[in-house]
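INSTRUCTION: Work out how this chain folds

Fields: amino acid sequence; protein backbone structure tokens

Chain under study, with its fold:
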Amino acid sequence: MEAYTDFAKVYDEFMDETPYHDWALYISKLIRSYGISTPYKKKDENELLLDEEQEQCAESGEDDTEELLLQEQNLVVELGCGTGSFTEEMAELGYDMIGIDFSGEMLGIARNKMEKSGHEIMYLEQDMCELDLFCTAGTIVSVCDSINYLIEDEQIRKAFTKVNNYLYPGGLFIFDFNTLHKYRDVIGNVTIAENREDCSFIWENFFDVDTNINEYDLTLFVKRRSGENSASANDEAEGYVDLFERSIETHLQRGYTLEEMKAFVEQAGMSFITAIDADTHEQPTEDSERIYVLAREHGKDALA
């Protein structure tokens, strides 16, 4: 079964403790430190102000071409946006966002969130290896181990080359990845189970030491009401009962070392900037389980 179909319906419930807001604040800090994109508005005293260059552009009445280039510079694209939780947090900070995901089911939930929040976010259903944007972007980000779903060297090279192609000159690529250490030594061959009121899951990991690929078989049990929908207090007496519908998805992710990721970045034509342990925000170590990598566009020669 294709990944993130039935799981999409309960994904947010099982990820309800994921610190998307904290991630967004930290990614925003990295963009301020290393990038060229800025948000369009200030959200509160702890967030970002409208960039001076934007203000000057608005006051001077510069031509449409310069305004369009400025919009591209300040555009942030998220690869593997899923149900849009992180995308929404970045939009709330004032960034002009595009979300990319391969799962139509996940994007449907993301669009519902957008309707409720009122944010203007463009969502595109695309494979990140086939990224196709209408313009360049000052920043491209990918969080929550989406890159680990690229399990072949050629897939990563192709995706990263696409990123380089669509980055604004000098633009920033920020992505995280789960390390080989995490899959091999921490979660490999471990079974995780969780029970909620309306859904439960069994998550079985199988790590292959020859390929560094972690296969996890996800068995879902989601509560469904038999018969027609009813709000009656006497549902059971009327013949309505709660059933749990079972479904199975198989996901494949590959563990990588930092050295491998540095090589992929450079092979795609980007320059490696730095790497950061995603949990400690310090230099990565052999025990790092998730790592941020920052890279910069410095030309399109690799695509010639």
Summary: The chain has two domains: 10-178+256-303, 183-254. DSSP finds nine helices and eleven strands in the chain.
